[in-house]
Each structure stands twice: as C-alpha cells, then as structure tokens.
Amino acid sequence: MSRKILHDHNHDGIDRRGFLECMAWAGTGALCVLSGGVLKSYGLSDPRQAAKAMAAGDLSFVQISDSHIGFNKAANPDVAGTLQAAIDKINALPMKPAFVLHTGDITQLSKPEEFDTAAQVLKGLKADHVFYVPGEHDVLDGTGKLYRERHGMNSPGDGWYSVDLNGAHFVGLINVLNLKAGGLGYLGRDQLDWLEKDLKNVSSETPLVVFAHIPLWSVYPDWGWGTDDSAQALSYMKRFGSVTVLNGHIHQTMRKVEGNITFHTAFSTAFPQPAPGTPGASPGPMAVPAGQLRNLLGITDVNFVRGQHALAVTDSTLAEMASPMMPGMGSQQ
Amino acid sequence: MRFKLTILVVTFVTIATLFASRSALNAAKPAPGPSERGSYTITIKNFEFSPRDLVIPVGSKVIWINKDEEPHKVAEVNSTFTSQPLDTDGSFTYEFKATGKFEYFCTVHPRMTGHIIVGGK
C-alpha cells in the first residue's frame, strides 16, 4: 500500500488516496484533548503520551463507536468482549476523561437485550458521563424509540441535543432516521433549523465539537458513507474558529480538513469494514485472520487544525498509525 | 391399402412427437415468467437486491431473503409494504394484489433500491 500523498485536489494538504490510506481497521477508541481551543486526538495505546496530553489540555474525552452488541458472526463473535477491552483501556488512562462519547451502532439489531448488554458493559466505565448518538442499527424500528428511552436525554425532535462543557460547545446530531430511497444519511429540515438556532447563541471563539453517526462529509457515497444535507449544517459552522466533527459508521479512522472544520471518523470496537472502493467488497463486516483483530486495537489517528491549515498529520502512514509499539508516533502536529 | 398404411404411420409419428415435446417441456419447466403468477425471490447479497428490477403479474408473491451479515429492511417508498429488520437468512414476503410500479429500498442502507412492476392478469 502506498503511504505517500499523491494528489492534493482540494489544496488542503490531503489527497483522496492519501487519506483513504490514513486509516486503521479496528480499535478501542480515541482520547480527545481540547487545548487552547484546538482538539487533538490520541491513541489509547500509549499511556505516557495520553497522560502528558491530558495534563496539558483544558478538556479530555474519549470517543468510542460501533460496538454492535448482538453481532455474532465470523468478523467478531465476541463484540461484548472487545467493547470491554476498550473500556479497560479507557479506565487505564492516567486521568479520568471528562466523559465518553459513543457515536452510534451501540447495538446490532436494536433489540432490548442488546441495549441492556451494552449498558451493563458500559457501566464499568470510569467516566462521569457517556453521551450518545444513535447509529442506523440502533433505530431499526424506524423511530428509535428504544434508543431514546435509554439515551435520549429528553432531547427535542428525533433526539438531537447540545451541551456546553469546559468552554466548548458539543452538538449531537441524528442522521440515521427518515432516510430517503437512493440517499445517504439525513438530518432533515427540523434538525437543521434547530441547529441554526442553537449555534446562533454560541460565540465564534467557542470551540465547536459536532458528532453524529454517519460521516458529515462524503467519504464514499457509493457505500452510503456521507450525509445528504450535511452541507447546510456545515454552513452554519463557517464562522467558528475551531470546528471538530466526529463520526463513526465506517469502522476505520479517516480524517479530512476543510477550511476551519476537521473531520474524524472513529474505529469500531466490534469489527472492521473494507476500505472504501475495495474491488468486490461491500460495506459490511470484514473477517481478518485469527488473532489480528485484537492486535489492531489501540491504534488511532492524530489530528490538529487551526484555521485553514492542514498539518503534518496528512503525512502519517497506516503503518505508523497502526503500530502501538512505535514510540512517539501516537501524535503528530 | 399401402396409402392407408402410410397415413397411419405418419399420424402415429406426429402424435408421438407431440407427446415427446410436451413431456420435455414439462420436465424443464422454467421459473415463473412475467406472464405467470407465482412466487418470485429477490436475494439480498453484497448490499444489492438481485434481481433489482422485476416484472410480475398481479397476484404474485415476492420473497426477499437476506444473505448478508448486515441487517436490511425492505420498504416501499410510499409505505405500501415495510418489512421487519431482516437479519442473516431472514425473509419477507409480500403479495402484489394490484397493478403498478413499486419502488422500494433498504431503510437501513438507502442506497440499495429496487423496482417491481406488476402487470395485468
């Protein structure tokens, strides 16, 4: 696999091929540290680095995603076990994160017992709060009733919400309901109106962190990896100095910098999916040789953006990011 | 006499040929086609409906079977029919009692679409 950036179509320091290669198959989560209004993410496989980052930052939290509790096929017959492994890594951090963020697909089939199992495992987290947004697997009933009963936080509409924490504004969006034939993820007019109104009350200097399950940027529309009306949502964020968008859904890390906005996608705690556009592949669970799945846990990407500058992270290679044994490679800027 | 015998032989051969053809047709009876009412199967595999477009007569049943490891959910765009979530090997059957063109999709993976055209009897 090539590890060099070959084309910079958007003049943002990232070429498509390059950022498609800057990913990993599966992992436990990412530690996010907000420092000076800029969000950085770190792998959980290097406790020393995590400690340093947490001590220096204003706010740190962990993102996990796509636990798919209830899945039992070859790609990972023990998804509760790998979720537990993710929790163990979070609990082993030198400082307790402010909260944990789960970006959806908590369950495989939206079954009550799957939600219950996930809750039981997540109860072991040493964190004061867990914030959620649903994935499409959590709302298979078409309304997300079971999800909202557990994680809805009495939020308006289909469950979107915002929270102010440590000087940052966090927005949870729902883009897995009311999907249209032939379309991608969907936010809808009501949510967009709410978002516009919500952000009007936030100063441009406030760091903005937006999270939703399906990527809010077009990762690979042929596989449904994008959101139809995300451009409208992102237009409301242009005036902010620092915007970070965190998504799940694609079970691999990717990032893109577009103007003031940095996009991240997270690892799954359950199973990998193929790289987008892999010949003959589809966006479903991908089995890897026995023993490899857990060997890949703990890897993560790194990001740093200020204004319109895409940084050296675009030069990161899959091998560098994927190797928890390589000292000093867990963070770049 | 010889003329009558010839006619008899020709008649026998013709009838025998007709029977043989009919038997062969029955033995290799094709799946129901657009003009034949019956059950039609649409397989869901690799995030695609196969066949994606289907023409059937009124009164036919269509069965969707999920062969993916991902759940899918089949829904007509105007909610004429909607399945439960279909896990691996799960199926959904709908009987088309009226003519029309029906566009459907997977509500979990909406890029997956298909059409069913229901013709006359």
Residue windows where pLDDT falls under 50 for at least 5 positions of chain A: 1-27, 295-333
Radius of gyration of chain A: 18 Å
Helix/strand/pairing category of chain A: alpha/beta
Strand coverage percent of chain B:
35-45%
- SS content category of chain B: alpha/beta
Shape of chain A: globular
| Quaternary organisation | heterodimer
Shape designation of chain B? globular
Question: What distinguishing features does this structure have?
Answer:
heterodimer; A: 333 residues; alpha/beta; five-stranded mixed beta sheet; 9 helices; 13 strands; disordered C terminus; B: 121 residues; four-stranded mixed beta sheet; 1 helix; 8 strands; 21% helix; 36% strand
Could you explain how this protein is built, in words?
The complex is a heterodimer of chains A (333) and B (121). Chain A is an alpha/beta fold and 333 residues long. Chain A contains nine helices and 13 strands. In chain A, helix 3 (79-91) packs parallel to helix 4 (112-122). Chain B is of the alpha/beta class and 121 residues long. Chain B has a four-stranded mixed β-sheet, with no helix packed on it. Chain B has a four-stranded mixed β-sheet with strand order 3-8-7-5, with no helix packed on it. In chain B, strand 7 (100-106) and strand 8 (113-119) form a beta hairpin. The longest helix of chain B has 26 residues, at 2-27. The radius of gyration of chain B is 22 Å and the shape is globular. Classes of the chains: A alpha/beta (333), B alpha/beta (121). The interface between A and B is medium-sized, with 23 and 22 residues.
